[in-house]
Specification:
The chain is α/β, with parallel strands linked by helices and about 180 residues long. The protein has one domain (about 1-175). Helix content is about 20%, strand content about 50%. The protein contains 3 helices and 10 strands; from the N terminus they run ββββββββββααα. The protein has helices at about 135-145, 150-170, 170-184; strands at about 1-10, 10-20, 20-30, 35-45, 50-60, 65-75, 80-85, 95-105, 110-120, 125-135. The strands form 2 sheets. It has a 6-stranded mixed sheet, with helices on one face. A hairpin with a 2-residue loop joins strand 1 (about 1-10) and strand 2 (about 10-20). Helix 1 (about 135-145) packs across helix 2 (about 150-170).
């Protein structure tokens, strides 16, 4: 697993890339008007299993947090994602969002995404979203009609799926390390 923390002004970013295994972590936002982004990508191959359990806790008024995870499940891989946004009683005016998107590359794989909210105060904005989908056959056909082999077309579409997270990281050296982790 590759993991790094970045800080710019009052904004903190935690970035990770992983292939399989179990990871449980709670991120806490403790400062007033602080922003935390947790950005992650994963690829689960063949019979690998990924069990990811994240909690983002707001503990102070006016904090902002976002968890954004994108992953690919190949072969008989298994991905289990559990994410919880917790806004404590001392954190009114906080904003939090959790999004998890998984791309299934085979019929044999399994994915389970369970986002949740625990809100203990008023006047907050919090939401979550999760999707599990497959590659679009029409997009694969389009690339094939342009001379791209089927396997290469699938790889192009899968990389395009993950690029949204990579573009938000913004640091090319970190993105290269993330991509290397996904291939190892």
């Amino acid at each position: 697993m590759y993991r790094v923390e970045l800080t710019k002004n009052d904004r903190k970013m935690v970035v990770f890339a992983m292939r399989s295994g179990e990871w449980k972590e709670e991120f806490r936002i403790r400062g007033e008007d602080k922003r935390l982004e947790v950005l992650g990508v994963f690829v689960v191959d063949e019979e690998e299993v990924l069990d990811l359990d994240l909690v983002l806790s707001h503990e102070f008024c006016g904090s902002q947090g976002e968890v954004y995870i994108k992953g690919i499940v190949k072969g008989k891989g298994v991905a289990k994602i559990k994410g919880l946004l917790r806004i404590g009683k001392d954190a009114p005016l906080s904003e939090s969002f959790l999004r998890a998107n998984i791309l299934m590359e085979s019929e044999q794989g399994f994915a389970d995404v369970r986002p949740g909210l625990e809100i203990l105060t008023d006047e907050v904005k919090a939401s979550h979203a999760a999707t599990i989908g497959r590659l679009d056959d029409e997009q694969i056909f389009y690339l094939q009609s342009r001379g791209v082999e089927e396997n290469a077309a699938r790889e192009i579409l899968a990389q395009g799926f993950l690029n949204e997270v990579f573009s938000r990281v913004g640091d090319p050296q970190i993105v290269d390390k993330m991509k290397k982790e996904l291939k190892d």
